[in-house]
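Much of our argument rests on the idea that a fold can be written as discrete symbols. Part of our work consisted of pairing the sequence of a single chain with a tokenised description of its backbone. The amino acid sequence and the backbone structure tokens for this protein are reproduced below.
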Amino acid sequence: GRFVIEGGVLYFKESTSRFFGLGQESRTEDESNFTQREMTARLLLGINFSRTLNLTLTERYREVGIQLGGVDRLPFIGDRFPALDGLKGATTWGHRLTLTHDRQDDRTTPTEGEVMIFFSEWGHVFRDAHITPFTRYGLQAKGWFPFSDKRLILVPNVQMQWLSASHVPFFERS
């Protein structure tokens, strides 16, 4: 159809989450463990301009709690990285505008085509009686290039994100 509406709620608790640090300074020997308890709600409204081009607005609510991890042989993230933003958890409310160009031959198992996604997200992180605004921009380009019999398909994928803010929790930085 011309218009799209989607929504969902997700809750999980993952006790084997790993963290190695932020940026290029991350090292294997800095591996730490934590339990991430998360509840996310999402509402997406969109319009299809054509079979291959659509624009969506997504409202995202995310509540994250950080607890001791379930892997005893690894240190807790808070012991290894005591100054890391987000160790006490936080709540995020974001508003994302996404433009998608999708020319896959099949949505489930594509064998040729490309997808290009551009997005901009504005939001706020709420924690410890502080509100931190942030802006995130991103793009993804992915293509499917089959060889002659389509048994082998080359699938290059490029993704980039830019986050503009300070003191954003580590779990919002991916």
